[in-house]
Amino acid sequence: MMHAIGGRLRLGEPMRRHTSWRVGGPADRFYLPGTLEDLQAFLQHFATAPITWLGLGSNVLVRDGGLRGTVICLANTLDAITLDASGLVHAGAGAGAVKIAHFAAKAGLAGAEFLAGIPGTLGGCLTMNAGANDGDTWSLVEWAEVLHPDGRVQRLSRSEFQVGYREVQGQGAACFIAAGLRLSPEDSDIVLRRLRAWQERRAATQPLEWPSCGSVFRNPPGDHAARLIEAAELKGLRYGDAEVSTQHANFIINRGAARAEEIEALVANVQQEVLHRFGIELQPEMRVLGEVADV
Fold this sequence. Notes:
By secondary structure, the protein is α+β, with helices and mostly antiparallel strands. Helices cover about 25% and strands about 25% of the residues. The protein is built from six helices and 20 strands. A five-stranded antiparallel β-sheet has the order 6-7-15-11-12, covered by helices on one side. It has a four-stranded mixed β-sheet with strand order 1-2-5-3, with no helix packed on it. It has a three-stranded antiparallel β-sheet with strand order 17-18-19. Strand 18 (about 240-245) and strand 19 form a beta hairpin. The radius of gyration is 19 Å and the shape is globular. This is UDP-N-acetylmuramate dehydrogenase. It is an enzyme of class 1 (oxidoreductase). Its EC number is 1.3.1.98.
């Protein structure tokens, strides 16, 4: 006999509540698991395809028509962070990157400070090899655990994944649920000072007071997307309440009531202008999900 499945299931959940851009139409089904066992049972008995995995929604643009199937949100669950006897940091996919950075610094471990500049969860960081300040997630990973659609958990070593700039392959249809991070021992006061200095620099150079997805475009080889966008004189370009930030050109901010379609159109316009001016095709760092709203 199957036991009751915990967690919360919502129908027609507005995705603007769960994305850092604060835009997005309704998800048909939105599930917040309480435990890994809840999630395994839900996948086996109740999940409706297609399945979209979500953390803090900081690297996605959900269109105004919303998402079909089931959204499974791991933010604020599967978020434990522990330290084993060998000094390996074990973190769940729902743990915030900023939280992991501070945990490591307080434990006297260096190398994860850049995670304090990433507004997402470890699951998202693993999925896209998120990075900042010349660091990237998979440079720290010793192993990762994935959850397959049939509910099976598998631990894989770093060498079993193909890792590139802002992309990772090897997990197939599975979702990341945890990882072991190998860091370097260092005086915690020194690490904390470095982490705080990085956060202060980020606050001074990025428009953190406005909803955004973080960096919109990948940096092309040997250059920076922000430099190209600024050189194309696109800072301040605005569609409705969607605007290319005047503080950091690789951020598109929501100044209040932007729609996903306005953000998506602005992203496309920036790509076209940079391609026209410099012959360089900027590649989005974020993912566009869902359906265009009916007119």
